[in-house]
Amino acid sequence: MGNGDPVRLAIVGAGRMGRTHLRALSGSRDVQVTAVVEPVSAVRDELTATGLRTYATLDELIEAGGVDAALVAAPTDLHVDLVRRIAAAGLPILCEKPCGLRPEDGAEAMRAAEDAGVVLQIGYWRRFVPELVRLREQLMGGRFGDLSLISCWQWDAQPPAPSFRRRSGGLVLDMGVHEFDQIRWLTGQELEEVHALPAAATSDEPVAGDPESVALLARLSAGAVATVSLGRRFPHGDCCWIELMGTADYARSLFIWGEDGIGVFHDALVAQADAFAATLRGEPQRGATGDDGLRAIEAADRAMHSLAAVASR
Hints:
Layout: E1 7-12, H1 16-25, E2 31-37, H2 41-48, E3 53-55, H3 58-64, E4 69-72, H4 79-88, E5 93-95, H5 103-116, E6 120-122, H6 130-140, E7 147-155, H7 162-168, H8 171-174, H9 176-187, E8 191-198, E9 213-220, E10 225-231, E11 239-246, E12 250-257, H10 260-280, E13 288-289, H11 290-311
Parallel strand pairs: 1-2, 1-4, 2-3, 4-5, 5-6, 7-10
Antiparallel strand pairs: 6-13, 7-11, 8-9, 9-10, 11-12
Helix pairs in contact: 1-10, 4-5, 5-11, 9-11
Protein backbone atom coordinates (compact mmCIF):
# COMPACT_ATOMS: atom_id res chain seq x y z
CA MET A 1 0.00 0.00 0.00
CA GLY A 2 1.66 3.21 -1.17
CA ASN A 3 0.98 6.52 0.54
CA GLY A 4 -1.18 7.68 -2.35
CA ASP A 5 -2.98 4.39 -2.97
CA PRO A 6 -6.36 3.55 -1.45
CA VAL A 7 -6.44 0.90 1.25
CA ARG A 8 -7.60 -2.39 -0.27
CA LEU A 9 -10.31 -3.47 2.16
CA ALA A 10 -12.01 -6.84 2.60
CA ILE A 11 -15.46 -6.88 4.17
CA VAL A 12 -16.10 -9.95 6.30
CA GLY A 13 -19.84 -10.52 6.32
CA ALA A 14 -22.25 -9.25 3.66
CA GLY A 15 -25.41 -9.06 5.72
CA ARG A 16 -27.28 -5.82 6.48
CA MET A 17 -24.30 -3.88 7.84
CA GLY A 18 -21.85 -5.38 5.37
CA ARG A 19 -24.04 -4.24 2.48
CA THR A 20 -24.42 -0.83 4.09
CA HIS A 21 -20.65 -0.44 4.24
CA LEU A 22 -20.36 -1.58 0.61
CA ARG A 23 -22.78 1.11 -0.51
CA ALA A 24 -21.28 3.86 1.63
CA LEU A 25 -17.62 3.13 0.87
CA SER A 26 -18.19 3.44 -2.85
CA GLY A 27 -17.90 7.15 -2.06
CA SER A 28 -14.47 6.88 -0.40
CA ARG A 29 -11.24 7.94 -2.12
CA ASP A 30 -9.03 6.49 0.61
CA VAL A 31 -10.58 3.01 0.88
CA GLN A 32 -11.46 0.58 -1.90
CA VAL A 33 -13.47 -2.54 -1.12
CA THR A 34 -11.88 -5.27 -3.23
CA ALA A 35 -13.03 -8.50 -1.56
CA VAL A 36 -15.87 -9.91 0.52
CA VAL A 37 -16.09 -12.97 2.76
CA GLU A 38 -19.63 -14.34 2.86
CA PRO A 39 -20.76 -17.94 3.54
CA VAL A 40 -24.04 -17.69 1.57
CA SER A 41 -23.32 -18.75 -2.02
CA ALA A 42 -26.18 -16.76 -3.59
CA VAL A 43 -24.86 -13.56 -2.02
CA ARG A 44 -21.34 -14.36 -3.21
CA ASP A 45 -22.62 -14.87 -6.76
CA GLU A 46 -24.41 -11.54 -6.65
CA LEU A 47 -21.31 -9.69 -5.43
CA THR A 48 -18.96 -11.48 -7.81
CA ALA A 49 -21.07 -10.12 -10.66
CA THR A 50 -20.19 -6.60 -9.50
CA GLY A 51 -16.46 -7.26 -9.89
CA LEU A 52 -15.62 -8.07 -6.28
CA ARG A 53 -13.53 -11.05 -5.29
CA THR A 54 -15.60 -13.24 -2.99
CA TYR A 55 -14.67 -16.02 -0.60
CA ALA A 56 -16.74 -18.47 1.43
CA THR A 57 -14.36 -18.40 4.40
CA LEU A 58 -11.88 -16.11 6.06
CA ASP A 59 -9.14 -18.69 5.56
CA GLU A 60 -9.64 -18.49 1.78
CA LEU A 61 -9.27 -14.71 1.87
CA ILE A 62 -6.12 -14.84 3.98
CA GLU A 63 -4.58 -17.47 1.71
CA ALA A 64 -5.37 -15.44 -1.42
CA GLY A 65 -3.98 -12.17 -0.01
CA GLY A 66 -4.23 -9.00 -2.02
CA VAL A 67 -5.87 -6.90 0.72
CA ASP A 68 -4.42 -4.40 3.18
CA ALA A 69 -7.05 -4.55 5.94
CA ALA A 70 -10.38 -6.10 6.91
CA LEU A 71 -13.72 -4.74 8.08
CA VAL A 72 -15.63 -7.17 10.31
CA ALA A 73 -19.38 -6.87 9.71
CA ALA A 74 -20.38 -10.41 10.68
CA PRO A 75 -22.85 -11.18 13.53
CA THR A 76 -21.75 -9.98 16.95
CA ASP A 77 -21.16 -13.44 18.38
CA LEU A 78 -18.47 -14.01 15.72
CA HIS A 79 -16.56 -10.75 16.25
CA VAL A 80 -13.89 -11.92 18.66
CA ASP A 81 -12.90 -15.08 16.77
CA LEU A 82 -12.70 -13.15 13.49
CA VAL A 83 -10.63 -10.35 15.04
CA ARG A 84 -8.24 -12.87 16.54
CA ARG A 85 -7.76 -14.69 13.22
CA ILE A 86 -7.43 -11.52 11.14
CA ALA A 87 -4.92 -10.07 13.59
CA ALA A 88 -2.88 -13.28 13.49
CA ALA A 89 -2.70 -12.84 9.71
CA GLY A 90 -1.16 -9.40 10.23
CA LEU A 91 -4.09 -7.40 8.86
CA PRO A 92 -5.38 -4.19 10.52
CA ILE A 93 -9.03 -4.39 11.56
CA LEU A 94 -12.04 -2.09 11.54
CA CYS A 95 -14.62 -4.05 13.53
CA GLU A 96 -18.30 -3.22 13.71
CA LYS A 97 -19.45 -2.44 17.22
CA PRO A 98 -19.60 -3.86 19.84
CA CYS A 99 -16.68 -6.27 19.15
CA GLY A 100 -17.99 -9.02 21.37
CA LEU A 101 -20.87 -9.93 23.65
CA ARG A 102 -19.10 -9.62 27.01
CA PRO A 103 -16.30 -7.52 28.52
CA GLU A 104 -13.91 -10.46 28.34
CA ASP A 105 -14.58 -10.61 24.58
CA GLY A 106 -13.61 -6.98 24.11
CA ALA A 107 -10.50 -7.48 26.21
CA GLU A 108 -9.51 -10.55 24.18
CA ALA A 109 -9.94 -8.71 20.88
CA MET A 110 -7.83 -5.83 22.13
CA ARG A 111 -5.07 -8.19 23.31
CA ALA A 112 -5.08 -10.06 20.00
CA ALA A 113 -4.52 -6.85 18.06
CA GLU A 114 -1.83 -5.63 20.46
CA ASP A 115 0.00 -8.96 20.38
CA ALA A 116 -0.04 -8.96 16.57
CA GLY A 117 0.96 -5.30 16.37
CA VAL A 118 -2.02 -4.35 14.17
CA VAL A 119 -4.51 -1.48 14.36
CA LEU A 120 -7.93 -2.27 15.84
CA GLN A 121 -10.61 0.36 15.35
CA ILE A 122 -14.19 -0.14 16.56
CA GLY A 123 -17.04 1.10 14.37
CA TYR A 124 -18.44 3.92 16.48
CA TRP A 125 -19.26 6.11 13.50
CA ARG A 126 -20.93 8.87 15.51
CA ARG A 127 -17.45 10.22 16.29
CA PHE A 128 -17.44 11.35 12.64
CA VAL A 129 -20.82 13.13 12.52
CA PRO A 130 -19.93 16.84 12.00
CA GLU A 131 -22.76 18.07 14.24
CA LEU A 132 -21.53 15.93 17.12
CA VAL A 133 -17.90 16.87 16.49
CA ARG A 134 -18.90 20.54 16.87
CA LEU A 135 -20.82 19.80 20.07
CA ARG A 136 -17.78 18.04 21.50
CA GLU A 137 -15.52 20.96 20.63
CA GLN A 138 -17.97 23.37 22.29
CA LEU A 139 -18.28 21.17 25.36
CA MET A 140 -14.51 20.87 25.73
CA GLY A 141 -14.16 24.60 25.06
CA GLY A 142 -16.36 25.51 28.03
CA ARG A 143 -19.54 26.64 26.26
CA PHE A 144 -21.75 24.65 28.67
CA GLY A 145 -19.89 25.45 31.86
CA ASP A 146 -20.09 22.49 34.21
CA LEU A 147 -22.03 19.71 32.55
CA SER A 148 -25.05 18.65 34.59
CA LEU A 149 -26.93 16.28 32.29
CA ILE A 150 -26.44 14.51 28.98
CA SER A 151 -29.47 12.71 27.55
CA CYS A 152 -29.35 10.41 24.52
CA TRP A 153 -32.13 8.76 22.51
CA GLN A 154 -31.87 6.00 19.93
CA TRP A 155 -35.15 4.71 18.52
CA ASP A 156 -35.48 2.50 15.46
CA ALA A 157 -38.48 2.45 13.16
CA GLN A 158 -39.05 -1.26 13.71
CA PRO A 159 -37.34 -4.15 15.44
CA PRO A 160 -34.87 -6.40 13.63
CA ALA A 161 -35.61 -10.05 12.96
CA PRO A 162 -35.69 -12.33 16.01
CA SER A 163 -32.80 -14.33 14.51
CA PHE A 164 -30.63 -11.18 14.62
CA ARG A 165 -31.74 -10.30 18.14
CA ARG A 166 -30.72 -13.69 19.49
CA ARG A 167 -27.14 -13.21 18.22
CA SER A 168 -26.73 -9.48 18.90
CA GLY A 169 -26.74 -9.54 22.69
CA GLY A 170 -30.09 -7.76 22.95
CA LEU A 171 -31.24 -4.15 22.96
CA VAL A 172 -28.88 -2.82 25.63
CA LEU A 173 -25.74 -4.22 24.03
CA ASP A 174 -26.67 -3.89 20.36
CA MET A 175 -27.98 -0.32 20.59
CA GLY A 176 -26.82 0.95 23.97
CA VAL A 177 -23.09 0.68 23.26
CA HIS A 178 -23.44 3.49 20.71
CA GLU A 179 -24.80 5.76 23.44
CA PHE A 180 -22.18 4.71 25.97
CA ASP A 181 -19.34 5.42 23.56
CA GLN A 182 -20.94 8.69 22.51
CA ILE A 183 -21.24 9.81 26.14
CA ARG A 184 -17.60 8.97 26.93
CA TRP A 185 -16.30 10.59 23.75
CA LEU A 186 -18.37 13.77 24.07
CA THR A 187 -17.81 14.41 27.77
CA GLY A 188 -14.41 12.88 28.51
CA GLN A 189 -16.04 11.25 31.54
CA GLU A 190 -16.32 7.57 32.41
CA LEU A 191 -19.59 5.77 33.07
CA GLU A 192 -19.67 4.56 36.67
CA GLU A 193 -23.05 3.42 38.01
CA VAL A 194 -25.46 2.24 35.29
CA HIS A 195 -29.07 1.34 36.08
CA ALA A 196 -31.76 0.06 33.70
CA LEU A 197 -35.54 -0.12 33.67
CA PRO A 198 -37.28 -2.01 30.85
CA ALA A 199 -40.72 -1.39 29.45
CA ALA A 200 -43.25 -3.95 30.58
CA ALA A 201 -43.10 -7.16 28.56
CA THR A 202 -45.98 -7.80 26.17
CA SER A 203 -47.57 -11.10 25.29
CA ASP A 204 -46.10 -10.91 21.77
CA GLU A 205 -42.56 -9.93 22.80
CA PRO A 206 -40.48 -11.44 19.94
CA VAL A 207 -37.48 -12.54 22.03
CA ALA A 208 -37.95 -13.39 25.69
CA GLY A 209 -35.81 -11.26 27.97
CA ASP A 210 -35.07 -8.66 25.27
CA PRO A 211 -37.44 -5.72 25.90
CA GLU A 212 -38.72 -3.45 23.16
CA SER A 213 -37.57 -0.34 25.02
CA VAL A 214 -35.33 0.50 27.96
CA ALA A 215 -34.49 3.59 30.02
CA LEU A 216 -30.97 3.84 31.43
CA LEU A 217 -29.54 6.11 34.11
CA ALA A 218 -25.80 6.53 34.68
CA ARG A 219 -23.53 8.58 36.90
CA LEU A 220 -20.41 9.95 35.22
CA SER A 221 -16.98 10.20 36.77
CA ALA A 222 -16.95 14.00 37.06
CA GLY A 223 -20.41 14.16 38.61
CA ALA A 224 -22.70 14.63 35.62
CA VAL A 225 -25.71 12.39 35.07
CA ALA A 226 -26.52 10.60 31.81
CA THR A 227 -29.85 9.24 30.66
CA VAL A 228 -30.30 6.93 27.68
CA SER A 229 -33.56 5.95 25.99
CA LEU A 230 -33.55 2.97 23.63
CA GLY A 231 -36.48 1.67 21.63
CA ARG A 232 -37.39 -0.37 18.58
CA ARG A 233 -40.70 1.08 17.39
CA PHE A 234 -40.67 4.75 16.39
CA PRO A 235 -43.09 6.32 13.89
CA HIS A 236 -40.54 8.82 12.51
CA GLY A 237 -38.08 6.15 11.36
CA ASP A 238 -34.59 5.40 12.66
CA CYS A 239 -33.74 8.41 14.82
CA CYS A 240 -31.01 9.49 17.25
CA TRP A 241 -30.86 12.72 19.20
CA ILE A 242 -29.10 14.24 22.17
CA GLU A 243 -29.46 17.00 24.77
CA LEU A 244 -26.71 18.66 26.80
CA MET A 245 -27.47 20.75 29.88
CA GLY A 246 -24.79 22.65 31.77
CA THR A 247 -24.49 25.54 34.16
CA ALA A 248 -23.90 27.96 31.26
CA ASP A 249 -25.82 26.66 28.25
CA TYR A 250 -28.11 24.03 26.74
CA ALA A 251 -28.20 22.33 23.32
CA ARG A 252 -30.38 19.81 21.53
CA SER A 253 -29.31 17.98 18.38
CA LEU A 254 -31.51 15.75 16.19
CA PHE A 255 -28.50 14.49 14.28
CA ILE A 256 -30.21 11.41 12.78
CA TRP A 257 -33.87 11.89 11.93
CA GLY A 258 -35.85 9.72 9.56
CA GLU A 259 -34.89 9.53 5.89
CA ASP A 260 -32.65 12.60 6.14
CA GLY A 261 -30.48 10.68 8.58
CA ILE A 262 -29.44 8.08 6.01
CA GLY A 263 -27.08 10.52 4.31
CA VAL A 264 -25.56 11.55 7.65
CA PHE A 265 -25.03 7.89 8.52
CA HIS A 266 -23.39 7.01 5.19
CA ASP A 267 -21.15 10.09 5.27
CA ALA A 268 -20.00 9.16 8.78
CA LEU A 269 -19.20 5.60 7.66
CA VAL A 270 -17.01 7.01 4.88
CA ALA A 271 -15.28 9.45 7.26
CA GLN A 272 -14.72 6.61 9.73
CA ALA A 273 -13.12 4.38 7.06
CA ASP A 274 -11.00 7.27 5.78
CA ALA A 275 -9.75 7.90 9.33
CA PHE A 276 -8.92 4.19 9.58
CA ALA A 277 -6.91 4.46 6.35
CA ALA A 278 -5.10 7.52 7.71
CA THR A 279 -4.14 5.56 10.82
CA LEU A 280 -2.66 2.83 8.63
CA ARG A 281 -0.54 5.52 6.96
CA GLY A 282 0.88 6.58 10.30
CA GLU A 283 -1.49 9.31 11.49
CA PRO A 284 -2.84 9.28 15.08
CA GLN A 285 -5.91 7.08 15.53
CA ARG A 286 -9.08 9.19 15.53
CA GLY A 287 -11.55 6.34 15.58
CA ALA A 288 -12.57 4.37 18.65
CA THR A 289 -9.82 2.10 19.98
CA GLY A 290 -10.08 -1.40 21.34
CA ASP A 291 -10.09 0.09 24.83
CA ASP A 292 -12.97 2.40 23.89
CA GLY A 293 -14.87 -0.64 22.67
CA LEU A 294 -14.19 -2.46 25.93
CA ARG A 295 -15.46 0.47 28.05
CA ALA A 296 -18.74 0.55 26.09
CA ILE A 297 -19.26 -3.20 26.56
CA GLU A 298 -18.48 -2.88 30.28
CA ALA A 299 -21.18 -0.21 30.64
CA ALA A 300 -23.65 -2.38 28.72
CA ASP A 301 -22.77 -5.32 30.96
CA ARG A 302 -23.58 -3.27 34.07
CA ALA A 303 -26.87 -2.23 32.50
CA MET A 304 -27.76 -5.84 31.66
CA HIS A 305 -27.03 -6.92 35.24
CA SER A 306 -29.40 -4.17 36.35
CA LEU A 307 -32.07 -5.45 33.95
CA ALA A 308 -31.64 -8.96 35.32
CA ALA A 309 -32.05 -7.67 38.85
CA VAL A 310 -35.30 -5.91 37.91
CA ALA A 311 -36.61 -9.04 36.20
CA SER A 312 -35.90 -11.17 39.29
CA ARG A 313 -37.97 -9.02 41.64
